[in-house]
Amino acid sequence: MAKRNVRLKADEKGFSLMEISIVLVVLGLMVGGIASALTQDLRRTKQINLKNKMDAIEQALGAFVKKNNRLPCPADATYTITNVRFGFEGSTAGTSCITGATYDGNGNRSANPTPSTANFYISTFAGGVVPVRTLGLADEYAFDSWGGRFSYVVDTTMTATDSFTSYFLNYPFASKISVNDISGSTNTTIALAVVLSHGANGHGAFQLNGTRKNAGITNTNELTNCHCDNTGTAGVFSNSFVSGRNTASSTDLRDSFDDVLRYYTRGSFLTNTDVATEIK
Fold this sequence. Notes:
By secondary structure, the chain is an alpha+beta fold. The chain has one domain. 25% of the residues lie in helices and 15% in strands. The protein has 4 helices and 10 strands; from the N terminus they run αβββββαβββαββα. A 5-stranded antiparallel beta sheet has the order 3-4-5-8-10, covered by helices on one side. Strands 7-6-9 form a 3-stranded mixed beta sheet.
């Protein structure tokens, strides 16, 4: 039987290149929209998780003060989670947080013969990470939503035994921890402690392995908070910090600020003695 030539009509042909291009563009927009929504949702989830963790740390600090009449010393940030001293406050309870350690002129620990102690110390200010086990928190609360450890700096005047009895609410604190906003205006000069998340970029934060993260950040406020340089290397430790809304440079992502900081004054912690005094 002779073969018949079958000619397809014009409207029976496949998609044209133009039609395929349009379909691909639409699909691209749909995928992009879904990805953007997922990214936004993930970011929102991490922010909620961060707030919940910082709330828990704040409540635990308050409970610790009420029970012990003092603030805890920082934990040693160089200990990994498998170390038996991970998450415990450094030094001997009720002391200056630096017993047995030596520090260089920049306030960075240079020797630590009787672990653990604060990693940083200058004047009466000690720094390290949140002592989650001392506070009765699970180990996960040592880390923020991006895997960096929460930094914790405290005025060691208030880590001494019964310091909250010695210094009442009206004690004239001066030259304590200072916190400015991102424009340089003063938020407080009388903070006793700060808890700090180094944000999504994590620059300067101690990690799970006990080392600090280098995100190459050049933002001045970020470097103030970590007391480190743009490689994450410790610089001059101090009692100055920055808190405020996050900012991102449109020209250089390294010049971004995404830290989240909470600070606490003497009035942030009410002990049983304080409450009894207020009632009177």
